Amino acid sequence: MSVKYDLDLIRHINLFEKITRINVKECFYFKEKLTFMVNQGLMMKALGKNKMHLLKLEKLLSKQIRIIEYNENLLQFIQNLIAPLKVVKISEEDGVVTIIGPDTKTKGLMIGSKAKNLRETEEIVQKYFPELKEIKVV
Question: How far, in Å, CA of 96 to CA of 61, rounded?
Fold first, then answer.
């Protein structure tokens, strides 16, 4: 997945960095939400006290915003990406990641209509972990 940074996205990144004082690792739309990815360990600083930064950004941009934290561990990165959805178990074998969800509703949200959410998640993860072949939700 290659992200095309148009003028709007660049403005959003600049505003995010100005408010949070954190560099954005990447910015993209994920599940129709403007998503900012920050480096490992910077999530709390990016959110701000009582989610102050997040709320301020949503108000200024009039958009729903997600902030996710990058992680060098494939399985943790996927969990960060699909949060706040709960995962019972997540494992990887030969490039195939299997996620076990707690209930049918959660699994449905992970997969999405016509597997749209699942394919979108795979696309983002493969950018950082090219060895990933597929994500399965069971």
Answer: 37
pTM above 0.85, yes or no: yes
The two three-digit tokens of residue 138, written as one number: 């069971």
Q: How far apart are CA 52 and CA 48, in angstroms?
A: 5
Query: Which of the listed residues 69, 88, 121 is the one where a domain comes to its end?
Result: 69
pLDDT value at residue 3: 56
pLDDT above 90: residue 32: no
Cis peptide before 102 (omega within 30 of 0): no
Closest by Cα among 132, 54, 57 to 99? 132
81 within 8 A of 129, measured Cβ to Cβ: no
Q: Looking at residues 8-25, what average pLDDT do you find? A: 95
Residue-wise pLDDT for 66-78, tens only, equals: 999 999 999 999 9
Domain containing residue 78: CATH number: 3.30.300.20
d(CA 87, CA 13) in angstroms, rounded, equals: 30
Cβ atoms 37, 30 nearer than 8 A: no
